[in-house]
């Protein structure tokens, strides 16, 4: 059990009951006896991450903090210190109290609009430019909903972002989308192995016979990039 929980946590997942057919999530109380304080902290973080919808997640941009918050809770917290928080986009971190921009995801830019800031700082962090170059080299694509980079390692053209997979099963079809990528593949239904950082996730892929003949519809010749298509 200890090894099972550790592996799941270190791979960015919440551990479930290891018994076949049981999908119950394990609780911290039942795992605290054999987990180290560090792993308990990680498990607590994973539980919080899972409880906040992808579109609601926001991280403190200050490197020494990086606290995870939901947009609603950080807005409520910021209202006490910033009267025009909702209109201005300024927020206070609930952990370090640092002021930041909820739209630009950077420390607050005084006397500058978000559009001006983004124009002057297309890559506010040096790592952003490196990531974009790496993504272009490896043909990665970015989810328009959660902004995570994904890579097609095997399978067909269409992928469902792992962060929206649960929404699909909840019948929230409007949240489901497909990303068209350049790599070829002609399997009808299979599980594709997708890598994001050090994580490995299974995504459901589906391509009916003949779809590859219509790929031109998804290609934008002006921007030389593929666009996101809703299923």
Automatic annotation (TrEMBL):
Question: So which domain of life are we looking at?
Answer: Eukaryota
Among the record's GO biological process terms, what is one?
A: protein ubiquitination
Source organism per entry reads: Sesamum calycinum
The record ties this protein, via CDD domains, to: BRcat_RBR_unk
> Could you tell me what reaction this enzyme catalyses?
[E2 ubiquitin-conjugating enzyme]-S-ubiquitinyl-L-cysteine + [acceptor protein]-L-lysine = [E2 ubiquitin-conjugating enzyme]-L-cysteine + [acceptor protein]-N(6)-ubiquitinyl-L-lysine
Keyword Magnesium attributed: no
Q: Does the keyword Zinc-finger apply?
A: yes
What cofactor does this protein call for? Zn(2+)
Protein name according to UniProt: RBR-type E3 ubiquitin transferase
Against SMART domains, the record matches this protein to: IBR
Q: Any idea where the RING-type domain is? A: 1-198
């Amino acid at each position: 059990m200890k090894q099972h929980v550790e592996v799941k946590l270190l791979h960015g997942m919440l551990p479930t009951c290891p018994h076949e057919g049981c999908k119950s999530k394990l609780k911290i109380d039942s795992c605290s006896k054999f987990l180290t304080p560090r792993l308990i902290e990680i498990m607590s973080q994973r539980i919080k991450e899972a409880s906040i919808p992808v579109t609601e997640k926001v991280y403190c941009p200050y490197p020494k903090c990086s606290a995870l918050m939901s947009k609603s809770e950080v807005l409520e917290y910021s209202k006490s210190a910033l009267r025009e928080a909702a209109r201005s986009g300024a927020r206070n971190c609930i952990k370090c109290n640092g002021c930041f921009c909820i739209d630009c995801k950077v420390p607050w830019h005084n006397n500058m609009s978000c559009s001006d800031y983004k124009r002057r700082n297309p890559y506010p962090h040096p790592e952003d430019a490196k990531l974009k170059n790496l993504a272009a080299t490896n043909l990665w694509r970015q989810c328009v909903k959660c902004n995570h980079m994904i890579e097609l390692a095997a399978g067909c053209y269409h992928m469902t972002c792992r962060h929206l997979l649960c929404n699909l099963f909840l019948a929230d079809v409007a949240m489901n989308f497909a990303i068209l990528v350049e790599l070829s593949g002609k399997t009808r239904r299979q599980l594709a192995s997708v890598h994001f950082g050090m994580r490995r996730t299974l995504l459901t892929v589906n391509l009916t016979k003949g779809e590859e003949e219509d790929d031109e519809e998804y290609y934008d010749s002006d921007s030389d990039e593929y666009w996101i298509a809703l299923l």
